[in-house]
Amino acid sequence: MIKALLNLAIIDLHLISSLVKHGNSSVAGLDLGLSQSSVSYRLKKLRVTFSDELFTRTTNGLVPTEYCRQLERIGANIVNQVESDLYHAGDFNPLAIKKEIWLSIDDSNLDWIPEIYQELKSVAPYCTLCVRPWNPQSFNEIKNGTMNFGIHVIPANSSELFSVDLTYCNRALVVREGHYLSNQHRPVSLSDLTQFPVILHDLAGWNNFGQSTIETAMSKAKLPFKFDAKIGVIGGILNIIKNSNAIAYVATNSIPEDINGLNIISAPKELDETHVSYKMYIPSNRYGSQESTWMIEFLSSSFKRFSDKKQQIKDKALSTATTFG
Protein backbone atom coordinates (compact mmCIF):
# COMPACT_ATOMS: atom_id res chain seq x y z
CA MET A 1 0.00 0.00 0.00
CA ILE A 2 2.71 2.47 1.02
CA LYS A 3 4.74 1.98 -2.18
CA ALA A 4 1.65 2.43 -4.34
CA LEU A 5 0.72 5.61 -2.45
CA LEU A 6 4.21 7.07 -2.90
CA ASN A 7 3.96 6.50 -6.65
CA LEU A 8 0.68 8.44 -6.89
CA ALA A 9 0.44 12.07 -7.93
CA ILE A 10 -0.38 14.47 -5.07
CA ILE A 11 -3.66 15.34 -6.82
CA ASP A 12 -4.76 11.69 -6.52
CA LEU A 13 -4.14 11.73 -2.77
CA HIS A 14 -6.14 14.96 -2.52
CA LEU A 15 -8.93 13.34 -4.56
CA ILE A 16 -9.22 10.38 -2.17
CA SER A 17 -9.35 12.77 0.79
CA SER A 18 -11.95 15.03 -0.83
CA LEU A 19 -14.21 12.12 -1.83
CA VAL A 20 -14.05 10.75 1.72
CA LYS A 21 -14.86 14.20 3.10
CA HIS A 22 -17.71 15.14 0.75
CA GLY A 23 -19.00 11.78 -0.49
CA ASN A 24 -19.79 13.48 -3.78
CA SER A 25 -17.67 13.41 -6.94
CA SER A 26 -19.10 16.70 -8.24
CA VAL A 27 -18.21 18.55 -5.05
CA ALA A 28 -14.77 16.90 -4.96
CA GLY A 29 -14.19 17.98 -8.56
CA LEU A 30 -15.10 21.58 -7.77
CA ASP A 31 -12.94 21.45 -4.65
CA LEU A 32 -9.88 20.39 -6.67
CA GLY A 33 -10.61 22.15 -9.95
CA LEU A 34 -11.13 18.86 -11.82
CA SER A 35 -13.77 18.09 -14.43
CA GLN A 36 -16.19 15.23 -13.81
CA SER A 37 -14.54 13.17 -16.55
CA SER A 38 -11.15 13.71 -14.90
CA VAL A 39 -12.51 12.66 -11.49
CA SER A 40 -14.06 9.52 -12.99
CA TYR A 41 -10.87 8.66 -14.89
CA ARG A 42 -8.64 9.11 -11.84
CA LEU A 43 -10.98 7.14 -9.60
CA LYS A 44 -11.05 4.30 -12.12
CA LYS A 45 -7.23 4.22 -12.19
CA LEU A 46 -7.08 4.27 -8.38
CA ARG A 47 -9.43 1.29 -8.18
CA VAL A 48 -7.19 -0.66 -10.54
CA THR A 49 -4.03 0.38 -8.68
CA PHE A 50 -5.31 -0.78 -5.29
CA SER A 51 -7.57 -3.63 -6.51
CA ASP A 52 -10.39 -2.23 -4.39
CA GLU A 53 -13.66 -0.42 -5.16
CA LEU A 54 -12.61 2.30 -2.66
CA PHE A 55 -16.12 3.82 -2.65
CA THR A 56 -19.62 2.35 -2.64
CA ARG A 57 -22.42 4.40 -4.18
CA THR A 58 -25.43 4.76 -1.85
CA THR A 59 -28.46 7.05 -1.59
CA ASN A 60 -26.39 9.21 0.74
CA GLY A 61 -23.50 9.52 -1.72
CA LEU A 62 -20.14 7.78 -1.97
CA VAL A 63 -19.18 5.78 1.11
CA PRO A 64 -15.50 4.78 1.47
CA THR A 65 -14.55 1.17 2.04
CA GLU A 66 -12.49 0.33 5.12
CA TYR A 67 -9.45 -0.09 2.89
CA CYS A 68 -10.07 3.37 1.43
CA ARG A 69 -10.24 4.89 4.93
CA GLN A 70 -6.80 3.45 5.65
CA LEU A 71 -5.51 4.89 2.37
CA GLU A 72 -6.95 8.30 3.19
CA ARG A 73 -5.25 8.44 6.60
CA ILE A 74 -1.85 7.40 5.26
CA GLY A 75 -2.21 9.57 2.15
CA ALA A 76 -3.07 12.62 4.26
CA ASN A 77 0.18 12.17 6.21
CA ILE A 78 2.15 11.98 2.95
CA VAL A 79 0.50 15.14 1.60
CA ASN A 80 1.15 17.02 4.85
CA GLN A 81 4.81 15.98 4.82
CA VAL A 82 5.30 17.03 1.18
CA GLU A 83 3.56 20.37 1.71
CA SER A 84 5.58 21.00 4.86
CA ASP A 85 8.85 20.26 3.06
CA LEU A 86 7.86 22.54 0.18
CA TYR A 87 6.91 25.32 2.59
CA HIS A 88 10.22 25.05 4.42
CA ALA A 89 12.29 24.44 1.28
CA GLY A 90 13.88 27.86 1.69
CA ASP A 91 15.28 26.72 5.04
CA PHE A 92 17.38 24.01 3.41
CA ASN A 93 21.13 24.56 3.58
CA PRO A 94 22.91 23.20 0.46
CA LEU A 95 26.07 22.87 2.54
CA ALA A 96 24.37 19.76 3.93
CA ILE A 97 24.69 17.97 0.57
CA LYS A 98 27.80 15.86 1.05
CA LYS A 99 27.28 13.14 -1.53
CA GLU A 100 27.26 12.40 -5.25
CA ILE A 101 24.41 13.88 -7.30
CA TRP A 102 23.93 11.95 -10.54
CA LEU A 103 22.50 13.75 -13.55
CA SER A 104 21.74 12.37 -17.02
CA ILE A 105 21.41 14.87 -19.89
CA ASP A 106 21.12 14.57 -23.65
CA ASP A 107 23.90 15.62 -26.00
CA SER A 108 22.26 18.94 -26.93
CA ASN A 109 22.96 20.30 -23.44
CA LEU A 110 26.63 19.45 -23.00
CA ASP A 111 27.58 23.14 -22.89
CA TRP A 112 25.56 23.43 -19.69
CA ILE A 113 27.95 21.16 -17.76
CA PRO A 114 30.66 23.80 -17.04
CA GLU A 115 28.00 26.27 -15.92
CA ILE A 116 26.10 23.95 -13.59
CA TYR A 117 29.38 22.64 -12.19
CA GLN A 118 30.57 26.13 -11.21
CA GLU A 119 27.16 27.22 -9.92
CA LEU A 120 26.66 24.10 -7.82
CA LYS A 121 30.18 24.23 -6.37
CA SER A 122 29.66 27.84 -5.30
CA VAL A 123 26.68 26.97 -3.08
CA ALA A 124 27.15 23.25 -2.35
CA PRO A 125 30.94 22.76 -2.22
CA TYR A 126 30.72 19.32 -0.60
CA CYS A 127 28.48 17.95 -3.34
CA THR A 128 30.07 15.83 -6.09
CA LEU A 129 28.39 16.45 -9.45
CA CYS A 130 28.31 13.34 -11.64
CA VAL A 131 27.02 13.69 -15.22
CA ARG A 132 26.41 10.96 -17.78
CA PRO A 133 25.08 11.18 -21.35
CA TRP A 134 21.45 10.19 -21.75
CA ASN A 135 21.09 6.62 -23.00
CA PRO A 136 18.17 4.28 -23.81
CA GLN A 137 18.26 2.97 -20.21
CA SER A 138 18.22 6.38 -18.51
CA PHE A 139 14.55 6.23 -17.52
CA ASN A 140 15.13 2.91 -15.76
CA GLU A 141 18.24 4.32 -14.08
CA ILE A 142 16.20 7.24 -12.74
CA LYS A 143 13.43 4.94 -11.54
CA ASN A 144 15.80 2.66 -9.63
CA GLY A 145 17.78 5.55 -8.16
CA THR A 146 21.04 4.99 -10.08
CA MET A 147 20.51 8.47 -11.51
CA ASN A 148 19.03 11.20 -9.29
CA PHE A 149 17.87 13.49 -12.10
CA GLY A 150 17.48 13.37 -15.86
CA ILE A 151 16.85 16.07 -18.47
CA HIS A 152 15.55 15.31 -21.95
CA VAL A 153 12.75 16.13 -24.38
CA ILE A 154 11.42 12.57 -24.30
CA PRO A 155 7.88 12.41 -22.88
CA ALA A 156 7.31 9.71 -20.26
CA ASN A 157 4.16 8.36 -18.66
CA SER A 158 5.11 6.47 -15.54
CA SER A 159 3.87 6.61 -11.96
CA GLU A 160 7.47 5.96 -10.91
CA LEU A 161 8.68 9.24 -12.41
CA PHE A 162 7.89 12.83 -11.46
CA SER A 163 8.46 15.40 -14.20
CA VAL A 164 9.09 19.15 -14.10
CA ASP A 165 8.61 21.27 -17.23
CA LEU A 166 11.75 23.33 -17.79
CA THR A 167 11.58 25.33 -21.01
CA TYR A 168 10.63 25.08 -24.67
CA CYS A 169 13.17 23.33 -26.88
CA ASN A 170 13.93 25.89 -29.59
CA ARG A 171 15.54 24.61 -32.77
CA ALA A 172 17.31 25.94 -35.87
CA LEU A 173 19.05 24.85 -39.05
CA VAL A 174 22.85 24.98 -39.03
CA VAL A 175 24.92 25.16 -42.24
CA ARG A 176 28.45 26.19 -43.15
CA GLU A 177 29.22 29.86 -43.62
CA GLY A 178 28.33 30.92 -47.17
CA HIS A 179 26.03 27.94 -47.76
CA TYR A 180 23.54 28.35 -50.63
CA LEU A 181 20.58 28.35 -48.23
CA SER A 182 22.07 31.11 -46.09
CA ASN A 183 22.23 33.45 -49.08
CA GLN A 184 18.56 33.18 -50.09
CA HIS A 185 16.34 36.17 -49.44
CA ARG A 186 13.37 33.97 -48.64
CA PRO A 187 12.35 31.45 -45.98
CA VAL A 188 13.80 27.96 -46.30
CA SER A 189 11.23 25.39 -47.43
CA LEU A 190 10.94 21.65 -46.87
CA SER A 191 11.75 21.04 -50.52
CA ASP A 192 15.05 22.91 -50.03
CA LEU A 193 16.08 20.26 -47.52
CA THR A 194 15.74 17.53 -50.14
CA GLN A 195 18.50 19.17 -52.20
CA PHE A 196 21.27 18.77 -49.63
CA PRO A 197 22.64 16.10 -47.27
CA VAL A 198 20.81 16.29 -43.93
CA ILE A 199 22.34 14.96 -40.71
CA LEU A 200 20.14 13.83 -37.82
CA HIS A 201 21.29 14.81 -34.34
CA ASP A 202 20.44 11.47 -32.76
CA LEU A 203 19.33 12.13 -29.18
CA ALA A 204 20.12 8.75 -27.62
CA GLY A 205 18.03 6.90 -30.21
CA TRP A 206 14.81 8.69 -29.28
CA ASN A 207 14.33 10.29 -32.71
CA ASN A 208 16.18 7.59 -34.63
CA PHE A 209 13.27 5.36 -35.62
CA GLY A 210 11.43 7.33 -38.28
CA GLN A 211 9.67 9.65 -35.85
CA SER A 212 12.04 12.63 -36.03
CA THR A 213 10.47 16.02 -36.67
CA ILE A 214 11.98 16.25 -40.17
CA GLU A 215 10.88 12.77 -41.22
CA THR A 216 7.36 13.37 -39.92
CA ALA A 217 7.06 16.71 -41.75
CA MET A 218 8.48 15.27 -44.98
CA SER A 219 6.09 12.35 -44.85
CA LYS A 220 3.09 14.66 -44.42
CA ALA A 221 4.30 16.79 -47.34
CA LYS A 222 4.85 13.62 -49.42
CA LEU A 223 8.44 14.62 -50.18
CA PRO A 224 11.14 11.99 -50.74
CA PHE A 225 13.66 12.13 -47.92
CA LYS A 226 16.46 10.15 -46.33
CA PHE A 227 19.04 11.22 -43.76
CA ASP A 228 22.61 11.28 -44.98
CA ALA A 229 23.86 10.41 -41.50
CA LYS A 230 22.63 9.90 -37.92
CA ILE A 231 25.14 11.09 -35.34
CA GLY A 232 24.74 11.41 -31.58
CA VAL A 233 27.59 13.86 -30.94
CA ILE A 234 26.88 17.49 -31.81
CA GLY A 235 30.59 18.36 -32.04
CA GLY A 236 31.07 15.80 -34.80
CA ILE A 237 28.05 17.12 -36.69
CA LEU A 238 29.29 20.72 -36.60
CA ASN A 239 32.74 19.69 -37.85
CA ILE A 240 31.14 17.88 -40.80
CA ILE A 241 28.95 20.89 -41.61
CA LYS A 242 31.89 23.33 -41.66
CA ASN A 243 33.49 21.34 -44.47
CA SER A 244 30.48 20.31 -46.57
CA ASN A 245 27.04 21.33 -47.83
CA ALA A 246 25.34 19.24 -45.15
CA ILE A 247 22.48 20.61 -43.03
CA ALA A 248 21.50 19.80 -39.46
CA TYR A 249 18.30 20.66 -37.59
CA VAL A 250 19.43 21.00 -34.00
CA ALA A 251 18.29 22.22 -30.60
CA THR A 252 19.28 25.83 -29.99
CA ASN A 253 20.93 24.68 -26.75
CA SER A 254 23.52 22.82 -28.81
CA ILE A 255 24.61 25.86 -30.84
CA PRO A 256 28.14 26.82 -29.72
CA GLU A 257 28.94 30.31 -28.44
CA ASP A 258 31.60 30.61 -31.13
CA ILE A 259 29.74 30.09 -34.41
CA ASN A 260 32.69 31.08 -36.59
CA GLY A 261 32.41 29.14 -39.85
CA LEU A 262 28.71 28.44 -39.33
CA ASN A 263 25.43 30.09 -40.30
CA ILE A 264 22.22 29.76 -38.31
CA ILE A 265 19.01 29.70 -40.38
CA SER A 266 15.36 29.67 -39.38
CA ALA A 267 13.83 26.28 -40.11
CA PRO A 268 10.78 25.72 -42.33
CA LYS A 269 7.60 26.55 -40.42
CA GLU A 270 6.45 22.93 -40.72
CA LEU A 271 9.32 21.86 -38.46
CA ASP A 272 8.90 24.51 -35.79
CA GLU A 273 5.16 23.78 -35.58
CA THR A 274 6.08 20.68 -33.57
CA HIS A 275 6.37 21.88 -29.98
CA VAL A 276 8.89 20.08 -27.80
CA SER A 277 9.86 20.94 -24.23
CA TYR A 278 12.73 19.95 -21.98
CA LYS A 279 11.63 18.10 -18.87
CA MET A 280 13.42 17.15 -15.68
CA TYR A 281 12.69 13.68 -14.34
CA ILE A 282 13.19 12.40 -10.81
CA PRO A 283 12.02 9.22 -9.04
CA SER A 284 8.52 9.74 -7.62
CA ASN A 285 9.56 8.33 -4.26
CA ARG A 286 12.21 11.06 -3.87
CA TYR A 287 9.93 13.96 -4.75
CA GLY A 288 8.98 16.18 -1.83
CA SER A 289 12.08 15.98 0.37
CA GLN A 290 13.78 19.27 1.21
CA GLU A 291 16.94 18.25 -0.59
CA SER A 292 15.20 17.18 -3.81
CA THR A 293 12.96 20.27 -3.73
CA TRP A 294 16.02 22.52 -3.43
CA MET A 295 17.88 20.63 -6.18
CA ILE A 296 14.88 20.81 -8.54
CA GLU A 297 14.63 24.57 -8.09
CA PHE A 298 18.39 25.06 -8.40
CA LEU A 299 18.80 22.89 -11.52
CA SER A 300 15.66 24.35 -13.14
CA SER A 301 16.79 27.95 -12.66
CA SER A 302 20.29 27.22 -13.95
CA PHE A 303 18.99 25.32 -16.98
CA LYS A 304 16.57 28.10 -17.92
CA ARG A 305 19.36 30.70 -17.75
CA PHE A 306 21.52 28.48 -19.95
CA SER A 307 18.70 28.03 -22.50
CA ASP A 308 17.96 31.76 -22.56
CA LYS A 309 21.61 32.52 -23.27
CA LYS A 310 21.66 30.03 -26.15
CA GLN A 311 18.48 31.56 -27.57
CA GLN A 312 20.18 34.96 -27.54
CA ILE A 313 23.04 33.50 -29.60
CA LYS A 314 20.52 32.19 -32.14
CA ASP A 315 18.56 35.46 -32.25
CA LYS A 316 21.75 37.49 -32.75
CA ALA A 317 22.90 35.17 -35.56
CA LEU A 318 19.52 35.40 -37.31
CA SER A 319 19.48 39.19 -36.90
CA THR A 320 22.96 39.48 -38.40
CA ALA A 321 21.98 37.25 -41.32
CA THR A 322 18.91 39.42 -41.98
CA THR A 323 20.97 42.62 -41.90
CA PHE A 324 23.84 41.49 -44.10
CA GLY A 325 22.32 38.59 -46.04
TrEMBL record:
Keywords: DNA-binding, Transcription, Transcription regulation. The keyword 4Fe-4S does not apply. This is LysR family transcriptional regulator. Residues 12-65 form the HTH lysR-type domain. Belongs to the LysR transcriptional regulatory family. InterPro entries: LysR-type_TF, LysR_HTH_N, LysR_subst-bd, WH-like_DNA-bd_sf, WH_DNA-bd_sf. One of its GO terms (molecular function) is DNA-binding transcription factor activity. It comes from Ferrimonas lipolytica. The keyword Transcription applies. Pfam families: HTH_1, LysR_substrate.
